[in-house]
Fold:
Amino acid sequence: MSLELRHLRCLLAIAEAGSFTDAALDLGVSQAAVSRTLAALEDELGTRLLRRTTREVTVTAAGARVLSHARRVLAEVDGLVHEATVGRTRLRIGYAWSAMGRHTLAFQRRWPVLRADTELQLVRTNSATGGLAEGACDLAVVRTAPDERRFDSVIVGLERRFCAMAADDPWARRRFVRLAETGSRTLVLDRRTGTTTIDLWPPQARPAVEYTNDIDDWLALIATGRCVGVTAEATVSQYPRPGIVFRPVRDAAPIAVRLAWWRDDPHPAGPAAVELLTELYRQA
Structure:
């Protein structure tokens, strides 16, 4: 005999009902079947899990340990079944840094009107695909082109580039900066999820670089005044910080904002998300 979920469900039913009779009613089987299933489980584990008298059923020390594990296992299995059968009633949109920028709130508020049948969940995952490759989301907002062998994507809008700097930086008094000027500064790059790479500058005019791996660390380093950063417009809206100001990079190419999804597993609500986000960027 091998351990099966029905054995764990039987043990849990007896422990929660307090009797074999009530457990049988809860499970929709006979009392004899409950007794046989428990006996088979105890034989498989080689230990007694319950003490049964004419008055009550109590859990042994070993039974308490097994019950603790059984509850976790059954909860995970139930969650798996729910995700596989009704998970499409929820749309998880992942992102690494700034979600949809200044359109995030409008998207969240308009989504229930557009698709009342599909719950929206935004998920921040510090990965290059915003959690898509890790299975943390169904769609992801990305600002670099994803691997076309695995993912499909569509451009929903464009964002300007901004330079982030300490509030007491001399550039903070200016209305904008130029990309070539930033080559004379030390630039902080997020090499895991950032939208800016050193390739934005020509080889002969590239800035000195420091690296970080998270938006909060990126902002903290800029606040010291030692570095500046170049980022998408969405960061300005999502991460206002005391001690940091953002100025447009006037002559830098815009950043394409994409919605991406697994090529072989598109979410049925994906087209609606693409349409809504495209509309929001177009209106802006």
